[in-house]
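Lab notebook, page 48
Experiment: co-folding of the full assembly
Goal: obtain a model of how the components sit together before planning crosslinking
Operator: M.T.
Materials (sequences as entered):
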Amino acid sequence: MSETKSLQGRKVVLHDMCLRDGMHAKREQIGVEQMVKVATALDDAGVPYIQVTHGAGLGGNSLQHGFALASNEEYIAAVASRMKQAKVSVLLIPGLGTMKELQAAFDAGARSVHVATHCTEADTSPQHIAFARKLGMDTTGFLMMAHLNDPAGIAAQGKLMESYGAHTVYVTDSAGYMLPEDVRVRVAALRAVLDPTTEIGFHGHHNLGMGIANSIAAIEAGATRIDGSVAGLGAGAGNTPLEVFAAVCERMGMETGVDLFKLMDAAEDIIVPMMDHLVRVDRESLTLGFAGVYSTFLLHARRAAERTGVSARDILVELGRKKMIGGQEDMIMDTAMTMAKARGLEGVA
Amino acid sequence: MKKIRCALIGSGNIGTDLIYKIKRSPVLEPVWMVGIDPASEGLARAREMGLKTTAEGVDGLLPHVLEDGIQIAFDATSAYVHAENSRKLNELGVMMIDLTPAAIGPLCVPPVNLREHADRVEMNVNMISCAGQATIPIVNAVSRVQGVGYAEIVASLSSKSVGPGTRANLDEFTYTTSSAIERVGGAKKGKALAIINPAEPPLIMRNTIYCLTEDEPDHVRITESILQMIGEVQQYVPGYRLVNGPIYDGNKVSVFMEVAGLGDYLPRYAGNLDIMTAAATRTAEMFAEEILAGKIKLKATEAV
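Observation: model returned without errors.
Model output:
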């Protein structure tokens, strides 16, 4: 109890993901108008950062990741022009997105970027982090699938991103696999090596129902920025539900600067009716969290299951065993086909 | 039988692996290895393997080019120094095979366009990128049957096989490969994605190739063309293997490939590096065969 009390008065910066991570859960099919409607409601509720675009971020429009209804620049420009206080942010995964696309996003109005690499590959991000800084953007180094690196490894990778110019380093639980202690030790290891002016963030997925608890653990260990999604609209079982997290922060005396009731209204009246399927912990999203698989693989695995006759759960478990990481969505159909052959289901594929 | 004598510039992993492949060739002979660090392991290993070495860069090689009859050089250094290396050696009549991203010469994927480059006696050809060598043959196998409006490739590389140069300049890899999918692969628009996976034991290089045909795809002819192309690549990369597909979904053709290396100097999982050295060697062999048969003659470029 004494630990939770110590968070009284702490400031937490909230970053909403429902218009970027949530695109995964919508098969990239959120239209520009709908995106503007959601973003203006979040802006009105005082959410300081709102991430938008294709679920895979800059460069995401592809056969590998699906095509959205509009270009990333169209989404950014439409949303950014309507914001009263919120900054619009984007995701850039080197190897998929490039500096040309970051420049275009900036020109369209993006002012913050998560530069994301797998948790052991930070050295693929120096160009992009440096370029984001040159553009004057709020720049985050985003270490994905953080459960696959130990605390010392995360600290070393975060230190690299800081050296390239990142203002903030995130522990990113892309698989929704981590438990509060896993988060705590990684954030603490980062806090011990990073410059005191470098912020730390946490991005959770709710696959084991730990989004809120993990975010609180991150703050206790020194994080000041938390990603979440209103109504949890995100990949897998969704992100940390932002309105729930805001309520918990308020109960604990932390300052988020958002209007809780407005956030609750946005969740209930706008986001939930948008959902194609109820984004929650179910058999397959729980499998993601249990097996440590990238949350975005969920709907791909369901499609591969339909085509091959191998169950989505079996496919996801096998992908976890093969240590597939974010970006390897092509390996979902490949793995399902190989499994179907081995099971004599080849005619189905 | 007479062999064409070669120089290798760059004494790192790629240069060392090239020694093995060139030594095995019936028409090529590795003679010189060029480095910049006298204490480098690569130069020591080259000496053990019977090559002459210099640690003074290309300038250390130039005085020996004519007396040692060097006709082909492989550059596995960096894009920054390649243009100068190429200019100096071309002036002495040495043909250059560029394994850097510099790409000052035409792009070469052996089963697609090597014959054209040899016929034109190009003095500098570029090997694009590992992902390019692994995927462009498949794109071309589709586009030679019917129009491809868009092709996209996904290369998964083991973390251990991706060097610091590529990591620090990942955008160049993306741009170079995307452009080559169009110019050599024959797609109207190309896109390349790279994923670096740190799993242990290291995963063998995987490549997925997606093509969107302009009209409804002819399943039989496209599948036949792809299988034939895979056979051609297997002649110089035996570990080039179709894992799944081609599968057809409307106008989308998907092909799932794996590239295991020969395990000469580089480990087998590093098929991405092996396909570069194998393609470069195959390219040199074609030029060498033509030179030996008296069909082409390398000409020194004019000094400027």
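Interpretation: The interface with chain B takes residues 59, 62-64, 94-96, 98-100, 118, 120-121, 123-124, 126-128, 148, 322-328, 330-331, 333-334, 337-338, 349 of chain A (CB under 8 Å).
Next step: discuss with group before ordering constructs.
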